[in-house]
Amino acid sequence: MSLQSRVEGLRARIQRACERADRDPASIELLPVSKKQPLALIREAAALGFTRFGENYVQEGADKAAATPGLSFVLLGPLQRNKARPALQSFAAIQSLDRPELAGRLRHLAEELDVVRPVWIQVDLWDEATKLGGCTEAALPALLDALGGDTRLPLQGLMAIPPPEEAGAFAQLAALRERLQQELGLPLRLSMGMSGDLEEAIAAGSDQIRIGTAFFGERLY
Ligand SMILES: *Cc1c(COP(=O)(O)O)cnc(C)c1O
């Protein structure tokens, strides 16, 4: 199947999900996740009008960013402290901020590099140590403290990767977003929903769906 027909299929899924949820499709950001996909496909997506891509690995994203001036990449994968500098240099936003030490490191480096990079907090609602990363609800206040409202790292939203088959996870995240918006007095976007569950995520209020395989096809390497 061509990239174009996969994208058309996705647009139709988003359209139907929005009709059922009484939402405006234009309000849903479709973020293509290009990890382990070749540059040629990213360029094909760019030709269809996509300019922003999600990547999981700092080095891979940095290489792709260097090869595609005019496109921007956001980091979705776990970030080690020792990769914080290249991450800030190569990515337009960090969507996987999940612990206070990392926030501190990013603030220090953002000042040193004189950059502004929107951040999203990755939420882990399940308190189990998964290798996916994420900040538990109990640990959120410490993370927000460490972020300290730094204008170089404006908080844009919450990102989550709920375990499959976890009924109610999307609604829990939506409720957490509401609560934090009230507490912080700022609008927060919600990034949830992937290839297999974008309909449920849109119904629950997601603003950004992150689509890898349903957009690009199977990951290659
Ligand atoms: C890989 C990945 C995606 C895309 O997953 P698909 O199931 O291929 O759509 C979305 N978000 C994150 C954080 C990922 O790591």
Q: Can you give keywords for this protein?
A:
alpha/beta, single chain, two-stranded parallel sheet, about 45% helix, six-stranded parallel sheet, binds pyridoxal-5'-phosphate, 8 strands, TIM Barrel, about 220 residues, about 15% strand
Description:
The protein has 221 residues and is an alpha/beta fold. The chain has a single domain (3-216), classed as Alanine racemase (TIM Barrel), CATH 3.20.20. 43% of the residues lie in helices and 16% in strands. The protein has helices spanning 3-21, 39-47, 58-67, 84-90, 100-113, 140-147, 169-184, 198-204, 213-216, and strands spanning 29-32, 52-55, 72-75, 93-97, 119-123, 155-160, 189-191, 208-211. The strands form two sheets. Strands 2-3-4-5-6-7 form a six-stranded parallel β-sheet. Strands 1-8 form a two-stranded parallel sheet. It starts with a helix and ends in a 5-residue tail after the last helix. The structure holds pyridoxal-5'-phosphate. Residues 33, 35, 56, 76, 161, 194-196, 210-214 line the site of pyridoxal-5'-phosphate.
Short description:
By secondary structure, the protein is of the alpha/beta class. The protein is 43% helix and 16% strand.
Mean pLDDT: 95
List the total number of helices.
9
Q: Let me know the CATH homologous superfamily.
A: Alanine racemase
CATH topology heading: TIM Barrel
